[in-house]
């Protein structure tokens, strides 16, 4: 075999961040924070707690609860939780100023009411948020969007596309300079839409939407651990997501959407939406990029593009990935005597993050 075709077996990249994670609260933090802190230097922490993170004061208090669970080792100690506010129709422009002044709030999250887990307090009429959007646009505070319409008559597989047509287009029309992250995009429509917009519009992509499609969820029996929102789409969409993620375009970056739900709430007649991936996300992304021969584009996606979009410095330290097969744990302890089943539980992955013991 010539040197040019020899597979890469170990490589080192700038330490990654996660621009979309759910750490939950209370006892859940004892499981989720060590995984996040071992694998990411910074993480945008989603505000869909019960009750949600609605004010700068809530965000400051939540940040302290997260920091209290960061392990003592030198890698984890670098972990910086970046906080978000949950957009409600009662949030005001003054609240946005307070949030920016706090220094801990880095974005505001828009959940259409009823679109996903803990979104009941979200936005019903986006026109009630114009003052908030104007202030965010003026101050450069990003709006993070769960982009799905919620009308009962719209097919679940069409909800992202309909959101683009019915909401995103108008939003950008009214606030052309607003920084927007279209979170966890799942369709070629969303990828094309982001590509067609200016630099202020970017997108996160989860590992599951790069590696899987709806066949993985539904063929040969229903697989609740592949169920998340927005739902996995057909393979043609997966392919486009993989194309844009591995293209080197800075509009697309990591956002694991790691979203823990206790095993019994997913393996259930009415199973919760969300895949837990914080402990395995980097190997999963490596696997996805490797599958199309684009490992050289991984670092931009995991460690550079997001920081630049948020106007934050690039991490100065590095992580090493090694090509070595290992088995994902069947579960992790979670909450009081419950457990948490990660994505790919019991399956073999090709890549390990070093130091391995810390990461998983
Ligand atoms: N992605 C999911 O399926 N679930 C997330 C919510 C979200 O990000 O939409 C959760 O909080 O469980
Ligand atoms: Zn979401
Ligand atoms: Zn999410």
TrEMBL record:
Gene3D superfamilies named in the record: Metal-dependent hydrolases
Question: Domain Amidohydrolase-related: where?
Answer: 18-316
Give the catalytic activity: (S)-dihydroorotate + H2O = N-carbamoyl-L-aspartate + H(+)
Q: Keywords on this record?
A: Hydrolase, Metal-binding, Pyrimidine biosynthesis, Zinc
- An example Pfam family from this entry, by short name, is Amidohydro_1
Q: EC?
A: 3.5.2.3
> N6-carboxylysine-modified residues are where?
109
How the cofactor is bound: the record states: Binds 2 Zn(2+) ions per subunit.
Q: Which domain of life is it from?
A: Bacteria
Residues binding Zn(2+) 2, per UniProt: 109, 146, 184
Q: InterPro entries, from UniProt?
A: Amidohydro-rel (IPR006680), DHOdimr (IPR004721), Dihydroorotase_CS (IPR002195), Metal_Hydrolase (IPR032466)
Tell me the route in metabolism or biology where this protein functions: Pyrimidine metabolism; UMP biosynthesis via de novo pathway; (S)-dihydroorotate from bicarbonate: step 3/3
Similarity comment text for this entry:
Belongs to the metallo-dependent hydrolases superfamily. DHOase family. Class II DHOase subfamily.
Q: What is this protein called?
A: Dihydroorotase
Source organism per UniProt: Enhydrobacter aerosaccus
């Amino acid at each position: 075999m010539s040197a040019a075709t020899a597979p890469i077996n170990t490589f080192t990249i700038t330490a990654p961040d996660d621009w979309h994670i759910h750490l939950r609260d209370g006892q859940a933090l004892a499981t989720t924070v060590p995984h996040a802190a071992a694998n990411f230097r910074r993480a945008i922490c989603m505000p869909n707690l019960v009750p949600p993170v609605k004010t700068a004061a809530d965000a400051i208090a939540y940040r302290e609860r997260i920091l209290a669970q960061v392990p003592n080792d030198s890698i984890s100690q670098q972990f910086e939780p970046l906080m978000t506010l949950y957009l409600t129709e009662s949030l005001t422009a003054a609240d946005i100023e307070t949030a920016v002044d706090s220094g801990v709030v880095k974005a505001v999250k828009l959940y259409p009411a009823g679109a996903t887990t803990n979104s009941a307090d979200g936005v019903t009429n986006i026109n009630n948020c114009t003052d908030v959007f104007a202030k965010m646009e003026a101050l450069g505070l990003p709006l993070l969007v769960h982009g799905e319409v919620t009308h009962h008559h719209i097919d679940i597989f069409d909800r992202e596309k309909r959101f683009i047509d019915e909401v995103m287009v108008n939003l950008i029309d009214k606030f052309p300079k607003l920084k927007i992250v279209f979170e966890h995009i799942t369709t070629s429509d969303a990828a094309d839409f982001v590509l067609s917009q200016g630099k202020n519009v970017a997108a996160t992509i989860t590992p599951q939407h790069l590696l899987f499609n709806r066949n993985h969820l539904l063929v040969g029996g229903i697989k609740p651990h592949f169920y998340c929102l927005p739902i996995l789409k057909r393979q043609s969409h997966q392919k486009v997501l993989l194309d844009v993620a591995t293209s080197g375009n800075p509009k697309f970056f990591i956002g694991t959407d790691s979203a823990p739900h206790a095993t019994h709430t997913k393996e259930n007649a009415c199973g919760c939406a969300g895949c837990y991936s914080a402990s395995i996300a980097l190997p999963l992304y490596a696997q996805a990029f490797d599958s199309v021969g684009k490992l050289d584009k991984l670092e931009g996606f995991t460690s550079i593009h997001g920081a630049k979009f948020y106007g934050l410095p690039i991490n100065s330290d590095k992580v090493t990935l090694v090509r070595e097969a290992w088995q994902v744990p069947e579960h992790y302890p979670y909450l009081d005597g419950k457990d948490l089943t990660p994505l790919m539980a019991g399956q073999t992955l090709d890549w390990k993050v070093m130091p391995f013991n810390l990461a998983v």
